[in-house]
Amino acid sequence: MTRPQLPLETWGKITRLTLDGKPAARASYRDSDGVTRRIQRVGRTHADAERNLLEALRARLAPTFEDLTSQSTVLEAITSYLGSVTHLSDSTLNVYRNATKSIVAGGFGSVLLREVTVPRCERFLKAVGENNGKSQAKTVRTILNNALTEAVRLGAIPFNPVSATTVPQPEKKPIKAPSLMAVREIRALIRRHDEGTDKRGQARVSDIADLVDLYAATGARTSELLALVWEDIDLNSSPARLTINKTLVIGTDGKLKVQDHPKTSRGIRALKLPQSAADMLTSRRIKSHSEIVFPSSTNTYRWPHNLRRIWREALEGTPYDSWTPRDFRKAVATLVKEEMGIEAARDQLGHTSEKMTIGHYIQPTHEGPDATVTLEQMFEKGE
Questions:
Q1: Which residues fall within 8 angstroms of residue 299, CB to CB, at 6 or more apart?
Q2: HEC string for 300-324
Q3: 217, 274 contact by CB (below 8 A)
Q4: Spatial separation of the C-alpha atoms in residues 353 and 370, rounded to whole Å
Q5: What is the dihedral of CA 76, 82, 86, 92, to 10 degrees?
Q6: Nearest to 113 by CA among 158, 82, 163, 60
Q7: Where do the domains of the chain lie, and which CATH numbers do they carry?
């Protein structure tokens, strides 16, 4: 009768023997590739040799990030996924790693993959939604779902329990864009702040008013405008043009870097500039000593959070202290859509679809149909 084959990644009976006068232990081990190999180790005694052999056999089973098992933890699965993924941008990776560190690691990270069930995932995601907000819960679910899908692919678990959980839906707030008057007043407030003095009575070194004017002129993202260099701007064309083909991001090492492509495939775009913006850039170009259009005080790329800090300081205590640079993007989208149509608004913002533009940036306006002829019947005299 043929001896039954060993199951994958297991070993058979351990045999003690003597090799070249030294105590030894030997066993057959069936590797993950299906091939059965003879593994042996020597020691000072036969018991020591057997211990050395068992250690070697267990080492072949030791889980690594490239070889997850059901005994691996959720945190190991996420670390493996984030370490191998190549299609995510640095900014997305930073979001995922920060959420993993601050939320998942202490709340679900030590759970073994074999212990992950749909109810346990549901309870954890519900707790994240209650404690950290629904948007964070949605992000955490995405991280877990991607990591456990990869664990299924590697054979660590038979199916992904996260895929059966419900998706936490953040409450959608109505889109509200600043009015033309609000845009003008915010621009004036920020310029006044730039030209004023600080708490010590010294002239401010902040310089964001021109950048804010370019928000209003383009509707571009902060990361797109901060990545601009002068070769991206053609002031000699009529009208002047600004080409967006890259974006400024915080790398996975925590340092600023220029990413050689925008956020989306439609993000590469040439935008025609209104004359006021062209005049501002011409004046700025004459005074510039840097290849960067909006450099920091040390002629390096400007950190986005420094810009947002100055923005908040300038609008603090005003009716506009809740507005953000992203709201200027909404104002541009809404105005362009009303004047030129939804396709023009989509292309101005660099979106891949009109659905994104309508769903997140354009303040809805509702106009009734032209029912004047129909309703005139209400006023006709009866026979």
A1: 289, 290, 292
A2: CECCHHHHHHHHHHHHCCCCCCCCC
A3: yes
A4: 29
A5: 170
A6: 158
A7: 10-61 (3.30.160), 74-164 (1.10.150.130), 180-360 (1.10.443.10)
According to DSSP, the residues that pair with 271 across neighbouring strands are 242
Residue with tokens 């996260």: 162
Of the candidates 345, 185, 371, which has an alpha carbon nearest to the alpha carbon of residue 271? Answer: 345
φ/ψ of 23, rounded to 5, equals -60, 140
pLDDT value of residue 383: 59
Q: Name the packing angle between helices 209-218 and 180-194 (round to 10°).
A: 160
| Cα 338 to Cα 90: distance, rounded to the nearest angstrom | 35
Secondary structure of residue 18 in the 3-state scheme: strand
**Cβ(259)–Cβ(249) under 8 Å?**
yes
At 206-223, the pLDDT tens digits run 789 999 999 999 999 999
The mean of the pLDDT values for the chain is: 87
Q: pLDDT tens-digit profile of 70-101? A: 888 999 999 999 988 877 778 888 899 999 99
- Identify whether the C-beta of residue 147 lies closer than 8 Å to the C-beta of residue 74: yes
In this structure, is the dihedral angle defined by the CA atoms of residues 214, 218, 219 and 224, taken in order, positive or negative? negative
Q: DSSP secondary-structure letter at 40?
A: E
Tokens 């640079």 belong to which residue? 325
Asked whether 350 and 266 are in contact (CB, 8 A), the reply is: yes
Q: How far is CA 170 from CA 55, 138, 143, 362, in A?
A: 50, 8, 17, 19
- Whole-angstrom distance, CA of residue 214 vs CA of residue 329: 11
Phi, psi of 11 (to 5 degrees): -125, 160
Query: At residue 102, what are phi and psi to the nearest 5 degrees?
Result: -85, -25
**Each residue's pLDDT tens digit, 28-84:** 998 877 788 899 999 999 999 999 999 888 877 655 445 788 888 999 999 999 988
Contact 101, 147 (CB under 8 A): no
Kindly report, residue by residue over 117-173, the tens digit of the pLDDT.
Answer: 999 999 999 999 999 988 899 999 999 999 999 999 888 889 999 999 987 777 777
